[in-house]
Design a protein that fits this description.
heterodimer, A: mainly alpha, two-stranded antiparallel sheet, 20 helices, 2 strands, B: mainly alpha, Four Helix Bundle (Hemerythrin (Met), subunit A), 9 helices, 0% strand, elongated, quinone binding (chain A), membrane (chain A)
Amino acid sequence: MEYSTSLALLAPEILVSVSGLVLLLVAAWSGDKSARFISIAAAVVLGGAFALVAPSVCTGAAGPDTVAFGGQFRADAFAGLAKLMIFAASGAALVVAPRFFGRAGAMRAEFPILVLFAALGMSIMVSAADLITLYIGLELNSLSAYVLAAILRDDERSAEAGLKYFVLGGLASGILLFGMSLTYGFAGTTNFGGIAIAVADGLSTGQLFGLTFVLAGLAFKISAAPFHMWTPDVYEGAPTPVTMFFASAPKVAAIALLARVSLEAFGSQSLAWQQIVIFAALLSIVIGALGAIGQQNVKRLLAYSSINNVGFILIGLATGTLAGASAMMVYLAIYVVMTIGSFVAVLLMRDGNGDQVESISDLAGLSTTRPALAWCLMALMFSLAGIPPLFGFWGKFVVFQAAVEADLIALAAIGIAASVIGAFYYIKIVKVMFFDEAVNTVTGKSDTPHWVLLAICALLISPLGYLLIGPLGNLADMAAASLAVAF
Amino acid sequence: MTVFAFYLFAALMIASGALTIFARNPVHSVLWLILAFFNAAGLMVIVGAEFLAMLLVVVYVGAVAVLFLFVVMMLNIDFAEMRAGFMKNAPLGVAIAVILLAELVLGVGAYRAGALDLGTPDGSAAPLVGESNIESLGALLYGNYLFLFESAGIILLVAMIGAIVLTHRAPTNPRGHQNIAKQNARNPKEATNNVSPEVGKGVEL
């Protein structure tokens, strides 16, 4: 095996891990004083990794040239596109975090380093072409995430979120490992290509069990119903920049991984996993829509919104076609932008003392007191609801189009009906902001980096975003095509 | 010679296993357990699994058994009280043992009869390198699986960072909060002040 070619394919991961180690040494010697510097350096590193990945995405890298370490790792266009979203979302988390933690007096130098290692784990996940690579990437990401959730260790809610996430995440990892060992036992290999050969002429009972448990473990990681119970509690308790991180990057990674396992390893047996994915998709859409209705806390509401969105993304996967995979990537890209925008807007909601405001009732009359914030939030909510002039509509459109083309008309119809239910609570927030008596709670000063990020997100989801349809669609098509080479 | 060594290790292992259960003193139990581990390692060497033997000594004796010992010595567990419930729970224990035995027999039987299809090797795996299994494992871990092995190292590093981030607190000044410069800078006029509180109001410090 040629190590040099393998290592060259791993360049972004090597960059992230080596700089993570160097920054860890800086953190160890200069302590929390250097937290701001390390955040900036980590964001620069993620930008560098982004630049390293971009060429392979633009050229649509695929085929045997993208396989490293004898089939354990695959740096194709599909992985590349997911990595671009992951690095961008992690970078956004690093941009908003220092001010938030600085106000709480708890900015730790280890925070950006953990984000870097989480990003490293996610980029290993999306490149996995072997069950062992999958698990190592997933654990690297999860372990960093557990610590990030509890990083405000003096805050009860943060500690509770970290513990809950850890215990339930450990359980999910166990289920996943159980499925993986069954798959290995009955397929005789952990390599996706090998599994595809082993299952080519029908699934044995053992393989079916393995597949089911692997899907269940991964469904926990993307918080798809019926494995979504942890999401509202963890999202509410974790510090808001961390919640923003959880809702964006790890979702991209786990969904890309799910697509790889289903389409690459079990691609020939799509009937077996399609039922599971369709079930999870419909349940997520309905639970996400109904669960959000009674929520009083914005972060809990956004947690249910993310469960709801995962359902729509899974519809793209459920088609089992390349068009579906491409639609899924388009939806994911738009979803990441909308999620980051919404959480940045939540971060901008602070009362006179600089404390975060999280209750929906405190948003009343925001349009008169903070018109710019209210209009941005309105655009984001309408976009999440999928109302046409905004870019969020396009994501739903391509996903449903792929479902209809794959003859899953009933699935598409139920999805559209449920998205109407979902629109109710998004529009309720807009109603509270624009038509209720002003309570004037949100009076705190705003931070420039937050505003810049919010403006970028608002611009991307505004009708101007439609200019991106061509390039984004192209990239997603090439990414999906690179999956096809593998199976 | 090998047969003699086998029976020696096996007999010693069973004996120390039994003594682990029957020893009155829990610390002695752990020590008997360590002896059992050593004998098991000897058995592994006899069948040619020297890596497993070393792992057993390093991991189980070096880490797990010592951990047990610490737990037994630090937590003041009342073993007499725990033993009192032994007869009450004995039927349950026997039932579990019978179930496990039945599962073992069934599993081995099914495998022998060829009823279990555990997949067939297609020769795509790397051939074994070297003579000893330590060399083979090393060649695999640092060759084929180098990438995964190093990534697993980063996972352990993250676990360590996490443990330190969540539990380590910067040590406070061990000599209390004495500030000599501040004490020297005090002057008598500021050191005391006269207050005349209203009745029932108390003094604000």
